[in-house]
Specification:
The radius of gyration is 19 Å and the shape is globular. A 5-stranded antiparallel β-sheet has the order 4-5-8-6-7. It contains 9 helices and 12 strands. A hairpin with a 6-residue loop joins strand 9 (169-176) and strand 10 (183-193). It has helices at residues 10-20, 70-76, 83-91, 102-105, 116-121, 139-148, 215-221, 228-244, 251-269; strands at 4-5, 24-27, 42-45, 55-58, 61-65, 125-130, 133-138, 155-162, 169-176, 183-193, 196-205, 212-213. By secondary structure, the chain is α+β, with helices and mostly antiparallel strands. Helices cover 33% and strands 25% of the residues.
Length: 275
Amino acid sequence: MSAIQIPKSVPDLLKLIAKHGKRSVLVSGVDASAANVPTGKVVIDLTGVELLNEIDLKRDKITIGTGMNLGRLAREATGANGLLRQAASIIANPLVRNKITFLEALSPDSPYFDITTPLVLLEAKVKLQSPAGKRTLSVRDYLDAVTKGLKKGEVPIAVEFATLPPESKVGFFRVARMGGKGTVSAAARMKLVRTVCRDPEIVVSSLTLVPLRAKLAEKEIENKPANEFSIKKASEIAAEEILAMSEKDSPYERTLIEITVARTLRSIMEGSIPV
C-alpha cells in the first residue's frame, strides 16, 4: 500500500508537495487507506487541513477551501444559486467525485478543469500560497498564470466570490469530445422577467480556449423572450464568437459549442418556454 501523509496545515502541505512532486495524490473526505493508488505514489490526505475544508459566508462573500472533494462541493457549495453544485455534479460522476479534490480540478491538466467555467461567470478570486508567501488573483489572471506555470511550490488554497442575488437564474452544461481528449462547457446567469431575458451573462470554454465571455451572444438574447428561437440564435452566435478567437475553426467544435450553450440556456429558461 502507498504511504499516506496527513498534513495539519498549509505549510505542511506545501512541504509534502515540494518533496513528492508528481508522485503526490491528493485525497479528501474519504478513507485514504482505501484509495486505489498506484505503487510508488504518495497519498496526501487534505482532510486535516482545516483551512482547506471550510465554506465560509461573510456578509455577501463566499470563501471555499480547495481541499474538499467535488462530492462535497456538489452537496454543500452555497452563494451561487446552485451553480457550483450543478457544475460539480456534471463534471464528475458519482463514481469519482468523492475522489477528486477541488485543488486537483483547478489544474489545467485535470479532466475536471471545467470547474473554472462557472468560476469565471462568478468573477471569482483565487487565493494562492507558496513557501515564499501569499497572493490573490482574479480567476482570469489565475487561468493565465496557471497555464504558463505558477510560482515554484505555489498552490491554490481557496476560491472566493460575491453571492448572487436570489433572482439570478443559473445554468451549466458540459460535453466531452468523442474519441479524444477535450471538453466544451458553458455557464450562464440571467434574470427572467415575465419570460423575458434580462442581464444575461454567458461564459464558454472550448476545446482550445480557457473560459471566455460570449458578449455578442449575451447581446443577442438580452430583452428577448425565453423560447427555442432565442436559444438557437444565441448558441450559434456564441459558437461564432468563441471560434473567432481560436486558431482554428472546426465544424465539430462549433457543433459542440452550440449544443453546450443551448443546453445551458434551456436549463435556465425551460420553465418559461411556452409549450
